What does this fold into?
Amino acid sequence: MNLLVTGGAGFIGGNFVRMALTTPGWAVGKLVNLDLLTYAGYRGSLADLETDERHVFVQGDIGDRGLVARLLREHRIDAVLNFAAESHVDRSIDSPEPFVVTNVLGTQRLLDEVGAYWKELECRDAFRFLHVSTDEVYGTLGPDDGAFTELTPYAPNSPYSASKAASDFLVRAAFHTHGMPVLTTNCSNNYGPFQFPEKLIPLVIRNAVEGRPLPIYGNGENVRDWLYVADHCRAIRAVLEGGRLGETYNIGGAAECRNIDVVDAICVLLDELRPDPAGPHARLKTFVNDRPGHDLRYAMDFSKLTRELGWRPSETFGSGLRRTVGWYLANAAWCEAVESRSYQRERLGLAR
It folds into this structure.
């Protein structure tokens, strides 16, 4: 298959691109990687793929109709995987408009061009549009509530989740109105290699190694279901290849954990792998004012995905977290480049 992957220089998209091109049995002809390279997109994360002739990197916006139309036809795309999104809740609270522009308008413009291309194909039945979304569209759960299912009503509580909910509905509408062959996945909190250091797990790892405070919102009781990014990528492949058109599939890690426990687990691993002469890393824990509208708990029921496609996570939270901590310890140069924003200067032509 020839794939168009949007947002393929970001965290989840970049991991998918790498797995698609390096995993035996993933039959990829050409992979066109369209990414705007905003603050969270880093082409350096894909440096090991620069010599792979199947990987075609294009810097651009999913809302650029002309560019999308050209890429689809020039590379005879068989499937589009839409990872492109503004995704950080805190940033959406401070500035919602970029989330609406990218996640809502960008998704609709992408759908328009993909739909026009799909209608021109001789073999429409084989084409797929897979939209990657989030568990946050479902809102929040109480301590004893059952996990989110694909039938849980949407109840987004942040500008980010509201914009993703809107994009999900636009994809749904493309299927029901135009018959487009779409699939949607809603995932829980991802973690793993190449995650931008503003997110909880890489932030705690980097701060702890450097002896800086480990910020924890509120009392640290908020619960998330943690999904190792490689497991997520394998689930996306399963849905792309075998999912029923028009359907939504939840993807979870079967790893509910309080934020305070996540921080403690990282500290224990760092005490083992990178001991600090000043004492246990947990001494750096610092409680800060809670995020406005902070959802209490997310949990994902992914039994539909297991039942229909046989997928389940291969990593436990313990094994995935050990892999993740080890990766960040071994890749300090990548972290420093991202944190210094040097890659953004390169993108703007200010450094080479």
